[in-house]
User: What shape does this take?
Amino acid sequence: MEIKEMISDLRTRMQSEMASAENKQALEDIRVRMLGKKGELTAMLRSLGQLSPEERPAAGQLINEARERFTGMIEQRSAELKALERAAALKSETIDVTQPAQMPEIGSKHPIHRVMDEMVECFMGMGFEVLEGPEVELDHYNFELMNIPKNHPARDAQDTFYVDDNIVLRTHTSPMQARAMLSRKPPIRVICPGRVYRADEVDATHSPVFHQMEGLVVDKDVNMADLRGTLNAFAEKIYGKGITTRFRPSFFPFTEPSTEVDLTCSNCHGAGCRICKGTGWIEVLGGGMVNPKVLEMCGIDSSVYSGFAFGIGLERIAMLRYGIKDMRLLYEGDVRFLGQFR
Ligand code: PHE
Assistant: This one.
C-alpha cells in the first residue's frame, strides 16, 4: 500500500474511534495505539527503510505532517470531552434549593438533670457552693462519720453494694457533709448533688441507683428556723407560689433533732387529691440539725458552731414536677419518653 493510502486509512479509523471514545482514558488509549512509541504511525516511519532513497524524504514528510494533524485532532477531541464532562457534572450536581433542609436531631436534657440544674440554680442564688464527691465511697464517710457505727441497726435501712469491707457504693449524699466539713472552715454552705445506691428491688417507686442532693450549712447560731426558711424558699422556687413545707419529727443518726419534710401538694395546692392521698402534703425530703457528735468527728467545735442539713430525692421531685407515675421510665432511655422534656 502507498504511504498516502495507509495514512488516510489510519485517519479514518482514528476518527471513528475518537468519535466513540467516551472519556479521557479511552482517548489516551487511541493516542498511544496510533501515535505512541510503539504506535502504528511510528511503525510506518520505521518501515521507510524499505523504500528507495529517492522516495524516502517525501514519505517521511507525509508521515510527520500526519503526526501533527492527528495530534491536533486528539487535542480537539480532548477539549470536547472535557466540555461534555463538565456539562454532565453541572447537571448531576445541581442543588435543589427548594428541598426542605434535613435538620439534625437535637437531644434533650434528662428530667433528672433538669430538676437538678434548677435546684442548683436555686441554692446558688442563696449563696450555696456546689460540691461533688465520689460515688464509690469509704465506709468511714458514708457511715462512721455520719454516726452510723458498724452493726448499728440504722445500717439495715441503707444496705448497699460493698466493694470490700471498707469501701461501699454510697447510700446517700450525706458523706459529702463530712467531706465538706473536713475540707472547709465555717461558715459552710454547700449543696452536693449526685448518684447514690441501695440494695433495692426495682419497682415503680424504687431503684438501686437514684439521685439525691445534700445541703449543709454550718455557722454560728444556725437553727431549725433557718432550715425551714431555706426549704420554704426552695419549695416556692421549684413548685411556685403558695407551696410551703411541713415538718414532722423523724430520726436520722446524723441529725438531732431530725425531721421529715413534706411540701404542699403542687397538684391540688393542699386541698387534697389522689396524688397526695387526700392529705394535701407530699413527703419529699429528710433533714435536721447536724448532730453535735458529727460536728465534733469532723473537727468542728460544737460549742461554737451549729448546722443544718437536708437530703432531697431528685427522682421524687422530677416525678411530681412532670407527673411521671413510674420511676423506671427515668432509666429506660426511651427517646419517645425523654423527647417530651424539651
Ligand atoms: N441521708 C438521708 C437519707 O438518705 C437524708 C438526710 C440528709 C437526712 C441530711 C437528714 C439530713 O435518707
